[in-house]
């Protein structure tokens, strides 16, 4: 009796008329007060009193009443609260009817919550476009959901999957079992690709299973490879284009520049990565620049041309906004203004006479006689002009003189 008083066990004794002889503190807390000398009908609902009376008659007839957590009894107090019980009613000496039970209300609430969570998870996995499985330490399927093959249950991975896939799965599961940590994984064959996670699931017996959730990424991978192929083609075309071109973020920071753009700026292509267009180029066309910045800030696919200068050069920069994965990017091309032709080197009167006669096809001897010079004197003038014009010989000298307009056509 002392044990019943000091614990949370719900216990009571009633006589043949249904009056309480004794009740444990837990019982009296359950019903909301002392019950000695009362009957159930004095403070419980009519339905509860009738059900208790029927159970009591069964016990008085010699048959015990038992409640289990799976099939609990219940008691509804006068306040309307329902208490779920696991225990038994039976006859004890006296003769008295004894009841001893424990409150399983919290356990049942937890079990209902767990059951609801399991139901939601099962429904989710049944409809999710994913393969969800659990395998044991021997790589045998103990649970299959979602898109997983139902016929796999109870079979080894090697019995269900093609050899190339089974080898990957077994290796990945073994790594999870060895490390005790979850892993991001990828499983692929010639026609399919799956990506997801494998994670350890400790078992009550001390063992460990491996849970797996995999998504079919075949189409995404095919699209990614296609995009990479086209990106590589674009970069190859960009690299070979003679037009100075670069690609930049919408804020003007260069991500890639072709050799032609690098040459126009006097740099190497990799030196332009992360360079800022607004620092590389200056412009006096502030209105066009303002419009371009406004259009880019509002997400418009703007196309503007700007007169720009850089390092003693000038040209036209065409900036075209194009869509990309991050919203907008800039495709910039540069048209470099041609440099003015160099001023022809100055010629003395004597040099002009020598050059004119060389162009006429006269020999050194004939030129010397006609101008009253020695042959060495003619050669001296020719050598000076060759060096000054930066050409290799007298034939090239004549060609350059015609180009610069120093000789009549």
Automatic annotation (TrEMBL):
Keyword terms, alphabetized: DNA-binding, Transcription, Transcription regulation
Gene3D superfamilies registered for this protein in UniProt: PAS domain (3.30.450.20), Winged helix-like DNA-binding domain superfamily/Winged helix DNA-binding domain (1.10.10.10)
Record bears the keyword Protein transport: no
Residues spanning the signal sequence: none
Domain of life: Bacteria
Pfam families to which the protein is assigned, alphabetical: GerE, PAS, PAS_4
Domain HTH luxR-type positions: 340-405
InterPro entries referenced in this protein's UniProt entry, alphabetically: PAS (IPR000014), PAS-like_dom_sf (IPR035965), PAS_4 (IPR013656), PAS_fold (IPR013767), Sig_transdc_resp-reg_C-effctor (IPR016032), Tscrpt_reg_LuxR_C (IPR000792), WH-like_DNA-bd_sf (IPR036388)
Keyword Zinc: no
PROSITE patterns attached to this UniProt entry: HTH_LUXR_2
Protein name: HTH luxR-type domain-containing protein
């Amino acid at each position: 009796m002392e044990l019943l008083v000091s614990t949370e066990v719900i216990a009571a004794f009633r006589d043949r008329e249904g009056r309480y002889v004794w009740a444990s503190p837990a019982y009296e807390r359950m019903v909301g007060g002392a019950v000695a000398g009362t009957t159930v009908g004095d403070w419980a609902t009519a339905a509860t009193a009738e059900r208790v009376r029927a159970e009591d008659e069964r016990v008085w007839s010699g048959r015990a009443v038992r409640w289990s957590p799976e099939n609990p009894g219940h008691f509804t107090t006068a306040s309307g609260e329902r208490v779920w019980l696991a225990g038994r009613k039976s006859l004890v000496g006296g003769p008295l009817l004894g009841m001893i039970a424990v409150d399983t209300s919290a356990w049942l609430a937890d079990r209902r919550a767990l059951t609801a969570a399991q139901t939601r998870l099962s429904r989710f996995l049944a409809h999710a476009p994913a393969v969800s499985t659990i395998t044991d330490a021997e790589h045998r399927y103990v649970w299959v959901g979602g898109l997983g093959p139902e016929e796999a249950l109870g079979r080894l991975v090697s019995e269900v999957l093609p050899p190339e896939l089974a080898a990957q799965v077994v290796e990945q599961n073994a790594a999870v079992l060895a490390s005790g940590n979850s892993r991001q994984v990828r499983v692929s064959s010639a026609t399919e690709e799956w990506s997801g996670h494998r994670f350890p699931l400790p078992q009550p017996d001390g063992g460990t299973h491996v849970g797996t959730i995999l998504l079919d990424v075949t189409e995404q991978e095919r699209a990614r490879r296609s995009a990479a192929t086209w990106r590589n083609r674009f970069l190859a075309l960009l690299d070979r284009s003679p037009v100075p071109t670069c690609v930049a973020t919408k804020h003007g920071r260069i991500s890639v520049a072709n050799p032609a753009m690098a040459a126009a700026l006097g740099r190497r292509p990799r030196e332009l990565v992360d360079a800022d267009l607004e620092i590389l180029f200056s412009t006096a066309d502030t209105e066009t620049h303002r419009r371009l910045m406004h259009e880019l800030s509002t997400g418009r696919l703007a196309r503007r041309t700007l007169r720009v200068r850089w390092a003693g050069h000038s040209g036209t920069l065409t900036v075209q906004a194009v869509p990309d994965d991050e919203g907008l990017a800039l495709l910039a091309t540069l048209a470099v203004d041609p440099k003015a032709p160099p001023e022809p080197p100055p010629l003395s009167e004597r040099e002009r006479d020598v050059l004119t006669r060389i162009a006429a096809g006269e020999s050194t001897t004939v030129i010397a006689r006609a101008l009253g010079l020695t042959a060495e004197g003619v050669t001296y003038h020719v050598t000076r002009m060759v060096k000054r014009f930066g050409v290799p010989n007298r034939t090239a000298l004549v060609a350059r003189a015609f180009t610069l307009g120093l000789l009549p056509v």
